[in-house]
Write a structure and sequence with these properties.
By secondary structure, the protein is an alpha/beta fold. It has a single domain, classed as Metal-dependent hydrolases (TIM Barrel, Alpha-Beta Barrel), CATH 3.20.20.140. About 40% of the residues lie in helices and about 15% in strands. An eight-stranded parallel sheet has the order 1-2-3-4-5-6-7-8. Helix 2 runs parallel beside helix 3. The longest helix has 18 residues. The relative contact order is 0.16. The structure holds zinc ion.
């Protein structure tokens, strides 16, 4: 495998980057410049709490045409859900910078909130996405059964849906595809140990349903050269998206340029981006 930087001239869209994260405060503009230099043409900034969603909208206003926002409450914070929060997310959902509701869903791996709290916040946000008529950006970890049941119940009323940072089994993948979901793939696939089953599953995703993301600052892609990731202090950022693309291209036996064009077109169609 070549250690050279993936082909120049790519045009990529990172559909999930947590750019409101405090680790980006000090070098935000330099980080964005590196993303552009790496061919990242659009970034959807993940809002996973009221505060980060508001920051994501603010960033999208300041970098119009480059950054876009999602607004939702991550299952880790589900205990905070309230009628007041629902009204605040409802207002955010109407902002033009917010191209998707979420991230929301279920996470029974960390269990920072009880399962019941998580299901309550998720159900309410499914209803918000239906009311807003916007796409949905979903998170699921170790909760496939409950998550699938809830998604299935609301699926007919929902528009476009992406299961972001997909890390589950091939069976789970096919159940999401059967519900007409898009699938977001992160640098998890680059992990020598955890990514093995994803290398197989990613081949099953139809061309039109595949989206790519960094989930920065998390999930540093391990196939990026050590000198590069050391220079970035081992923090993941959108400039590393080409390495996620490369691993997916290898797994699917696809051409990197073609896969870049395909996933960027999918992201534009999914979020309604110019
Ligand atoms: Zn997530």
């Amino acid at each position: 495998m070549s250690a050279a930087s993936p082909a120049a001239g790519l045009e990529l869209i990172d559909i999930g980057a947590n750019l409101a994260h405090e680790s980006f405060h000090a070098d935000f503009d330099a980080m964005l410049a590196r993303a552009r230099a790496a061919g990242v043409a659009r970034i959807v900034v993940t809002g996973s709490s009221l505060d980060s969603a508001r920051q994501a909208v603010e960033l999208a206003r300041r970098h119009r045409g480059f950054l876009y926002a999602t607004a939702g409450l991550h299952p880790h914070h589900a205990a905070e859900w309230s009628d007041e929060l629902a009204a605040q997310f409802g207002a955010l959902a109407r902002q033009p910078e917010v191209v998707s509701l979420g991230e929301c869903g279920l996470d029974y791996f960390r269990n920072f909130a009880t399962h019941e709290e998580q299901r309550r916040a998720f159900a309410a946000q499914l209803a918000l996405a239906v009311a807003a008529g916007k796409p949905l950006f979903l998170h699921q970890r170790d909760a496939h059964g409950d998550f699938l049941a809830m998604l299935r119940e609301h699926r007919a009323q929902l528009g476009a849906v992406v299961v972001h940072c997909f890390t589950d089994t091939r069976e789970a993948l096919h159940e999401y595809l059967a519900l007409d979901c898009h699938i977001g793939i992160t640098g998890w696939i680059c992990d020598e140990r955890r990514g093995t089953q994803l290398l197989e599953a990613v081949r099953d995703i139809p061309d039109q349903r595949l989206l790519i993301e960094t989930d920065a600052p998390y999930l540093l892609p391990h196939n990026a050269p050590k000198e590069l990731t050391r220079a970035l202090h081992r923090r993941n950022e959108p400039a590393l998206l080409p390495w996620v693309l490369r691993k997916i291209a290898q797994a699917r036996g696809a051409d990197e340029q073609a896969l870049a064009r395909l996933t960027a077109a999918n992201a534009r169609r999914f979020f309604g981006l110019p």
